[in-house]
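Here's what a typical entry looks like (Glycerol uptake operon antiterminator regulatory protein):
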Amino acid sequence: MYFANQPILPAVRQMKDFEKLLTSPFEYLVLLDVHIAQLKPIFQMAQPYHKKLLLHVDLIQGLQSDSYAAEFLCQEFNPYGLLSTKANVIIRAKQKGVIAIQRIFLIDNSSFEKSCSLLEKTNPDFIEVLPSPMLHVMNNSKQGPDIPLLAGGFIRTTADVDEALGAGAVAVTTSSKELWKHYADHGADRVKA
């Protein structure tokens, strides 16, 4: 159920980048900062290329990030998955049968404890840990749930990707175009279309 041995998940902020990624070897793409009116054409464009889209619900402009939004997105667009910091979005995504990725920010012990409590409630398919250098806290904790981890934030180099994967992440989300190019060009054995 992991991302087809795709070490990075390109996180797209602009349509021109999304259009370029359509012909890339990456099967899974994360959509950030998209306007609700762009979703229909985006999904139509992705379909012929067999791209699996993960929507960051909290960053869709023109749509409130709540369980109703999650239900709407699942019914109207059938995304591969939804990402959110909000419990009600994750719970609804799971109810609708799409991949649910709980995004958590680990900045101190209190945020770690709150995140563990939240994860017990939502039981997501994946946890995206931000910033990525904090991945080891979640991975090495006896308190933390046994849920596959993604790493995000402060991923700038291939060494950062390797470090996150070595620390237990199953994949890394990144908006770095340099990393997209590197893994598209050199990671062909690890990236499948």
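The two ends are 15 Å apart (CA to CA).

More examples are in the samples folder.
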